[in-house]
Fold these 2 entries.
Entry 1:
Amino acid sequence: MLSEMVDASINHPSVIIWGFLNEAGTNKESTRPIFEESVALLRERDPSRLVTCASMFPLEDRFYDLVDIICNNLYPGWYGTDEHPDPLSLILPRVRECVAHAMTFDKPYVISETGAEALPGFHDPLNGFFTEEYQAEYLRVYCKEVVSNPDIVGLAIWHFSDARVDRNEQLIRRPRGFNNKGTFDEYRRPKAACKVVREIFSQWPKTATGEDGSKK
């Protein structure tokens, strides 16, 4: 499958990094042969691009030595935090912990996934889960950290627009049968988070550098 992926997209101008086995068992040494073989194959087929693998085990990953870029999928403040009195407060400590660990490998660091779900048009002054307000504040914390932390070189927000994932099976976890983490709904109408993300990244050169262009 990796060979077919490279053959299909090797000349595509939007492909800048090869990624494989998203959220796989990178916390188990027994899977190392699979990852070594995959990395070797990708580099053989296309030595011009970088190779990475998005990990869901940021502190337990055993294979950072194999990749060119360390990528973590991080969801503090969303999954498993519904009983916490202030879930947003969990974001920065976790992100900074993961970044500090990754820096010991002396490689570029990217947050390859993060996000929180918001039901389009669902508003609540208490900023509850699944409201547009909670998603907006969630991404505000993340994006401000990304543009101000020089050790983070990239962020991929999961995801662009809401998408149907289930009809019945996960309706408790997936209201409407959708993954509702899009900053746009399924009709490409912006949610409140869209404005937040746009504002923060449109100011990024000013927040990352001083008036004279020097790094802060």
Note: Helices lie at 2-9, 32-45, 91-103, 132-148, 192-202, 204-208.
Entry 2:
Amino acid sequence: MYEKFFGLAEVPFKILPDTRFLWYSEQHKEAKEKIEYHIQQKDGPVYLSADVGLGKTSIAQRLSDELKADATKKVVYAFASNLKTQNQFMRFVADEFDVKTARSFQDSQRNFEEYLIKQYEKGITQVLLIDEAQNLPYDALKTIHHFFNFSTPNQFLIQIALFGQTELQKRIHSYKSLASRMYPVKLRPFERKETEDMMQFRWTVAGGDKLPFDKEAIDEIHRLTRGVPRDICKLANEALLHSMVNGSKTVTKEFILSAAKDAFEEV
């Protein structure tokens, strides 16, 4: 790759959700803090919905890592499974929390409720984070809604945060009694300044100094990607390769345009 050419320790624009490279824009800080607040207050479930590539999974993983460091919390971070029935989803959640399951939904539910009460008495908060939650079928949402019955007069016994694409909001709002109990959080694409700040942050984490993209190049990255972080990373990565192949340590608008043809099929 181009690390040696640009004097880097590692690749700065990988699209993997490495939490070390998660740059907190003001909206990302706000989203994470709002989710944390509701988990800490134990006052209700929350969901984060956003378009593909805006950083949902990175926030979910960062929250999971930070909450797991707290000995007073038992955290499960899972991806939504295509489970068709209430019983299947109940067994899935119980298994994730190492709770004994039963053949019937009612028995598995009873076992899980008893587990939550015992953990509450021990002072341990149970936290369920579900990513790709737009894939949850109706019966899974119905089970989540039932979890709200597991509560004391002043707090829920299990704290739930769902992370998903914009379809998640539509699915939740089609279930009015569920929507009325959940707090929404959203993310939007980056503005031009946020795009540059995120790129500089990742460049620094990777061991670089001054970002080698000139102003017009960053303008073009923002225009072509519409401020979507994952697409910014894809395009910046390809542009650095094009720049290296051409022996240039400055990434110009021309390299962005040529790289876009490799990064995005539609360009």
Note: The domain at 3-9+190-263 is CATH 1.10.8.60 (Helicase, Ruva Protein; domain 3).
